[in-house]
Specification:
Shape: globular
Number of strands: 16
Order of helices and strands: EHHEHHEHEHHEEEEEEEHEEEEEH
Distance between the termini: 50 Å
Radius of gyration: 20 Å
Structural class: alpha+beta
Length: 350
Amino acid sequence: MTTLDTASLPVIDFARIVAPNSRDDADAITERKLESEKLFRAFVDVGFVYLRNHSIPEDAREGLFSHAQSFFQQQDEEKAKVETGEAKAFHGWFSPQRTSGDTKHSDQKEAFDVGRDDDPTRPNQWPANLPGFQKDMNDFFQRCHEVHLELLRVLAKQVGIDEDFFEPFVGARDHWFRVLYYPETTRESFQNRVRAGEHTDYGTLTLLFNDDSGGLQVRHANGQYIDAPPIPGTCIINVGDMLARWFNDKLRSTQHRVVEPAPKANTEVLPARYAIAWFGHPNRDALVEPIEACCTSENPKKYEPVYAGKHVVERLAYLHKKGKNSTAWSDDMQRKTNVNPASAAYVDPV
């Protein structure tokens, strides 16, 4: 088993970052400063960290994994009652085997996607037969938002801007999170399909909670993929495209994937895998462009402004069409639409 001492990614102690909130003493302030610098350096070098003492109770995490098992073990006919798509704001059940145009090479996974539950323009879909499912999902959504905010404050201070700089851009809580199910499969199946193809995430920061199955890999700066096995008591945090764009690529939005895990027994059958990925995002109408403090003669401005809502909708539309994410993304891959891009309510792509 991988431990904090043998981790392949930097390990950040969230308790040290928030310590001055509860302990107003010199030691707590020093701990926060050192841990904040360590976090920023890790996001510059790798784009991924393990986060320990992340403040989200273990029973909340376990509750979501229990709900995930209950939901995905249902028959497809039952899950289809809350099936997702662009017309449903990409909230609900997603199965590449049902919706992808390329099921031969699509990811081996299913997902249930949730946004903030008080948005009437993009309502969530909830299964009617799972008590506590909706409440526990919403509670988890808010807990992750609070961790995400604290980390954004740290990153802002590291480049000399006000620690609350990002709050107006994320205050609408236009995040979403995905409960993931990778069905039992065989090793032979990985000849044509993986569990999640290589991709970057779309938004600000991702909080990833895994079971003990393994298979996650992160692309190192040298181009090689390294294993990022689960470590008990931690979650994994990584930088997304929008945050890297804000920081003019000072922070790294790193490619990652979920592949065949290392064998734990001499068997051709791989058990199911579950994961929970909470994706932080700017407000839909946020216009994201590089922060001036991150643009220098050595690192000139690399990006034009883009509406955050349009970016994520285009990435999701691609995922649903292809059954897997693109390995790379650029603004010219976005579809032409006939509505205000700030609304992120796209129709009639041409």
